[in-house]
Amino acid sequence: MPARIGVVTFPGTLDDQQALRAAAAVGAEPVALWHKDRDLHQVDAVVLPGGFSYGDYLRAGAIARFSPVMDTIIDAARGGLPVLGICNGFQVLCEAHLLEGAMIRNGDLHFINRDVALRIENNRTAWTSDYEAGAQAVIPIKNVDGRFVADERTLDALEAEGRVLARYLANPNGAARDIAGITNAAGNVVGLMPHPEYAIDELTGPAGFIENRRVPGTDGLPFFTSILKSLVSA
Amino acid sequence: MSTGHVSDQPFDTTSVFEDTAVAFDTVAKAAATPEAKQPYRELGMTEDEYLRVREILGRRPSSSELAMYSVMWSEHCSYKSSRVHLKQFGEKAPKTAALLVGPGENAGVVDVGEGLAVTFKVESHNHPSYVEPYQGAATGVGGIVRDILTMGARPIAVMDPLRFGPAEAPDTARVLPGVVAGVGGYGNCLGVPNIGGEIVFDPCYLGNPLVNALCVGVMRADEIKLAKAPGPGNQVILFGARTGGDGIGGASVLASATFDEDGPAKRPSVQVGDPFMEKVLIECCLEIFAADLVVGIQDLGAAGLTCSTTELAAAGTGGMDVWLDRAPLRDSTLTPEEVLMSESQERMMAVVEPAKVEAFLAVCEKWDVTATALGEVTDTGRLRMWWHGEVIVDVPPRTLAHEGPVYNRPFARPEWQDALQADVPTAARLRRPASADELRETLVNLVGSPNLADKTWALEQYDHRVQGNTVLGHGEDSGMVRLDAALPGTSLGVALSTDGNGRFAKLDPYAGAQLALAEAYRNVAATGARPLAVTDCLNFGSPEDPDVMWQFAEACRGLADACLELGTPVTGGNVSFYNQTGEVNIHPTPVVGVLGVIDDVDRRTRSAFEREGEILLLLGDTRDEFGGSEWAHEVHGHLGGLPPRLDLHREKVLGEVLIAGSRDGMLSAAHDLSDGGLAQAVVESCLRGGHGARLVLPETDADGNPLDPFVALFAESAGRAVVAVPRSEELRFTDMCVARGLPVARVGVVDGTVLSGEAVLEVQGQFTVPLTELRTAHEGPFRKLFGHSVVDA
């Protein structure tokens, strides 16, 4: 039986279908999860996708974090369930205190949809093991509150514990220490502002001459092959 | 007139009726007090129109009825000045089996094969966007997306053709960043990718920017929904956002009145959007459609509840009873007239069979969408409305929706037209670059001029990737999306381009409208898609000015004639009049959107030069044509002469060659030649692909006359494209061109890559420019102009 990857839909979620498509693309069984349903339907991993859950009202992710499905996910994540929060999903994970820090308005105050170059700093998590250490990847960002911030002590701890998952090579939004994504200590809960699910094929991904390099459009795929392998070997 | 007056105290009925039991006007009171004075002028109606309403009803209208007639008979809703010209789009429409729904519905629908249908339309939101750039642009996106949703389709892409005053003007710095943020703020939150559009600057738009919005949606061909209310006993359900006081009078007042000194006072008339509500509404509607729970549906746009109830009733069994006080309100103090006029966003109206009401409400409940049964379909032939037990409206709905006034406005060729056309930008009239150095300088300056500079600063504020089906996005000749949303796994896609050159249309509105169509057609074909259908947004000045009316008549005639010749029918669109500041009208600006279909999106042609050694071919004829050109505008501030000559047959052949080249895998890149000519196209393709190019300019023109390098580089002759072909395909491709009678000339080679060192653009025998210099010149200006803006959303 293939690994089951669940993708949560909150009201205002936008990238759920693409996350399901990415799961299917690597051979996992995609499972749609509904915010009002506490049942995780025996999934082996969960993606909290991007979008504007509840319109980002109050704060990005602040309302979605209290939805029924999150009660179950928070418990399961503490028990080791692999969870990837992308963009708005990352914001939900921070609001749920599964990850540290917060996202504030981009430095130039604008929404930015740009294909950015990342360096994968930690390839020991459930979601990044298929990258080479220090690998570079071009993956799109598309957000307005994408600037990762935390107090200095938290940032130092993240660095010291090797929990910085990925950094921007050219910081697009003023994120603290160029941080694009982080992981929890166990490596099962990962949050990332860029969207690896939109870099899974040449046809629709960032392919061609981008950021002064030639890229294939598939640089985000290892997030999904990584989780598949870690689930198979677990 | 002041909108503040309208929204604060719309009809002053209390003073007339203060001695009666109910504070609002009713049909009974209207019958009893025929002499009561009514503020029809303040609502934008002429005396003749008002008298006609009295004749239709056989009494004076109640204040609610007056509000409804005033808004439904406004220029914006009734097309009373344009209708006589627009009918050509139907009369001259090319016969095509692809057209499933034509003009008149919320949007046209075309058959794209594989059992799928695509619906698309472009609309204007010009005046609200000048008053309140962020909300005006945002609700422009929201409105057009709801039009597409109403047809039963999932919205799969938006595009925004925008026009502003001079880039460096202080008011442009106010309007442009707000409009861009509004387009992005709404569309991004909605999850509909923005795949293209235009940003154009010209002094004529300084006090009247053009904010047009296009949306395209896809559905199964057998699932088209229409705005009609058939079947007596069926329930009329209002769902979505609550009704508030925003946008009252927007349609009749804002969209039809010109701007003058009291601009800021109109602030409250602009609607405020909630894209989160709309996103939820989209998913809710699509689930309702999938379960087949409605017999008719209409969105609430201009004229809100007035428009939706009258149009549904007029297109259905003919009658409807509405209990207006059941409408959920954001503001409990709203009068019935205000409820009828409110343009609060994110609202829909559905007609549901009684047996399906429960299932309908359950879907709304799932998505936390407020839904209220507001009325019922009848066979009385009357639209009746109650407010707290009193009848306030009792009218034949067709008189509102379809039998409004129609005007044959006088029009005449402007006196100044001949002089304008005679002022041809010849070498003697405008000084041209004379040396290689001057040519080089001209090229570098032009690629960095506001109209030709890279627009990434604005376009990256739009999400073009969401939904995961964007195959071509910003910077390509047209946007292209896969139709996977309606048919998972399909490779079928549609391409869309919008174009419109106000300077060309000013010089010759007939030709200008045709050139807009030709350019959009060419852009679609350049990506490998077959052009199928057209939508248009006709932005013009005051219809009460015979000069403007002539421009409008000519543009409509030109567009209809060209659509017939190219075989692409107009499926719908929008007219925006009164685009003027004081007495000064904008350039006539027909913006034309062309939709094309491509069987296999993998075959799409991109515009980037990506492989060294590939051959560059120029397709089409180049002539000494600079009337209305970017060079004349930017370098000399000149507008005169005639626009480029157009040969529609040639456009068709060029399209066929580009499509065949894509289908048969002969093309590596294709880029249409338009603003800025060959130079601009080659620079864009080089920068996009990270490769240099060596150009060898043709020495003679189509007629065998000598072609000087300036003309070869910067002329804007129509019907041209530059393509890159692998050496192995050159012969096959040129043979195809020759066989079809399309002029083809080898103009260079892709040479040098940024990755392995310094790439340059070399124009042989003339000059060389490093790509780094071109990149700085092309990509720098927009950030410099607008990068420091802060938008108050």
From TrEMBL, chain A:
Catalytic reaction annotation: N(2)-formyl-N(1)-(5-phospho-beta-D-ribosyl)glycinamide + L-glutamine + ATP + H2O = 2-formamido-N(1)-(5-O-phospho-beta-D-ribosyl)acetamidine + L-glutamate + ADP + phosphate + H(+); L-glutamine + H2O = L-glutamate + NH4(+)
Superkingdom of source: Bacteria
Active-site residues per Swiss-Prot or TrEMBL entry: 87, 195, 197
SUPFAM superfamilies: Class I glutamine amidotransferase-like
SMART domains with a match to the protein in the record: GATase_5
Localization annotation: Cytoplasm
Annotated EC: 6.3.5.3, 3.5.1.2
Keyword tags: ATP-binding, Cytoplasm, Glutamine amidotransferase, Hydrolase, Ligase, Nucleotide-binding, Purine biosynthesis
Principal location class: cytoplasm
Pathway(s) this gene product operates in, as recorded in its UniProt entry: Purine metabolism; IMP biosynthesis via de novo pathway; 5-amino-1-(5-phospho-D-ribosyl)imidazole from N(2)-formyl-N(1)-(5-phospho-D-ribosyl)glycinamide: step 1/2
Functional note: Part of the phosphoribosylformylglycinamidine synthase complex involved in the purines biosynthetic pathway. Catalyzes the ATP-dependent conversion of formylglycinamide ribonucleotide (FGAR) and glutamine to yield formylglycinamidine ribonucleotide (FGAM) and glutamate. The FGAM synthase complex is composed of three subunits. PurQ produces an ammonia molecule by converting glutamine to glutamate. PurL transfers the ammonia molecule to FGAR to form FGAM in an ATP-dependent manner.
SUBUNIT field: Part of the FGAM synthase complex composed of 1 PurL, 1 PurQ and 2 PurS subunits.
NCBIfam families: FGAM_synth_I, PRK03619.1
Name used for this protein in its record: Phosphoribosylformylglycinamidine synthase subunit PurQ
Organism from which the protein derives: Catenulispora pinistramenti
Upper lineage: Bacteria, Bacillati, Actinomycetota, Actinomycetes, Catenulisporales
Gene, per the UniProt record: purQ
